[in-house]
Amino acid sequence: MPAELKRTYGTRAATRPLLPSSPSSELTTPPPPKRKRPFTDRPTEQNTPTKKARRTLKAEPKPKAGDKSKGNSKQPKLTQLHFSLDTPTLRTCPLCDLSYTRGAPDDEALHKAHCARVQRGLEWGKEEQREAVKAGVEELQSNVKLRNGARGRVICFRPDIGGKIAAKLAVLLETIRLALSSPPLSPAVLRRSKIYLFLLAAPGLASTREKIVGCVVAQRISTAMAIARPAEVSAALSSPSSSQTQSSETLASSQSTLSSSQDSSESSVVPVTLLPVDSSTNLYVHPQPLPTPMGIPRLFVSSEHRRLGIASRLLTAAAETFILGCPLSPARGDVAFTQPTGAGKAVLEAWGKGGVRIYEEEGNI
Ligand SMILES: CC(C)(COP(=O)(O)OP(=O)(O)OC[C@H]1O[C@@H](n2cnc3c(N)ncnc32)[C@H](O)[C@@H]1OP(=O)(O)O)[C@@H](O)C(=O)NCCC(=O)NCCS
Ligand SMILES: [Zn+2]
């Protein structure tokens, strides 16, 4: 359960710098506090060293004069103590990136469950399906064939759905939160969102079992910023005005801005200011907020089902149906991502055909 996961787990610190909360002007403010919850925040029984009664030599009563027991007049015999090597240690799983206490049964069990969800997805059982019919969950696509031959379908619902589906959604969002080292989606963001899920059918014709293997959260937003083209970034980085800041790393970590010219020819110098989003992926944006209807604050596909087109399919379904009767086009700039991961950036470039923008999820409520 998510509440239990919160107790002892922390994922690796996000290496990505955070995008500040409001467009343009406040982008130069220092980044908000680290997303990672310090391990020491919530000590568990296993994590907290237990105090053991120590035998201190000082406490030994001094032998009194005339004490009959001769042995007491000598130094007490010291015993060699050994360090215990089987004490719990913090481990980060290479498969799901979660840090947990090895040797602590609770942590081991919670990690096992989380790791399975990250790799293989979450069960979509009969009970969820029964409720889905009553709760008005829409089936947007059925009998979808993936490139590996597997089949599935795309469903959509609002996060305030309630019942078993809401409980399942809470576990799913917590799994994504841990996998991305991101903060939880706030109720205000969720109120303006729709959830799109890819349900994969278990192999075998007769099987009715399904797994949630992909999730897109789509949020109603108002503005976002256009991503700078690579030529604009390199022009900005090599322009004289940015020469004091040697590398893109420095620029991003200081949340400074870049000045450049749109045209590298000296005759038409049009200053352009770029804002760094993530220097490790060379992602910069133009600071002007542009009207944009749909944001994607979360995007996740379980690791065993990646590169099958699931994320792209979910994004297309979201763009087509998010606003009733008004299909959105990523190429036209109707869709924005929050600060993307490396793989997220690859998807936004491949799926978005250069038109996807960047926004800050809490700054757009
Ligand atoms: C990012 C993520 C959702 C992509 O899901 P996916 O279902 O594998 O994406 P798709 O199959 O639709 O990929 C579409 C295209 O994007 C590009 N792409 C996707 N993942 C990529 C990767 N890891 N490296 C390079 N390119 C990638 C490819 O061009 C791909 O097309 P191709 O497979 O025909 O080459 C998935 O990797 C994931 O959940 N990662 C962990 C969480 C995360 O980083 N989320 C993004 C937050 S912004
Ligand atoms: Zn793991």
TrEMBL record:
Basic and acidic residues: compositionally biased ranges: 57-70
Residue ranges with Low complexity bias: 17-28
Domain N-acetyltransferase ESCO zinc-finger, first and last residues per copy: 80-117
Principal location listed in the UniProt entry: nucleus
Zinc is among the record's keywords: yes
InterPro entries given in the database record: AcTrfase_ESCO_Znf_dom, ESCO_Acetyltransf_dom
Any one GO molecular-function label of the UniProt entry: zinc ion binding
GO cellular component, one term: chromatin
Pfam family, one: Acetyltransf_13
Similarity-based family: Belongs to the acetyltransferase family. ECO subfamily.
Protein name: N-acetyltransferase ECO1
Species the sequence originates in: Lentinus brumalis
Organism ancestry: Eukaryota, Fungi, Dikarya, Basidiomycota, Agaricomycotina
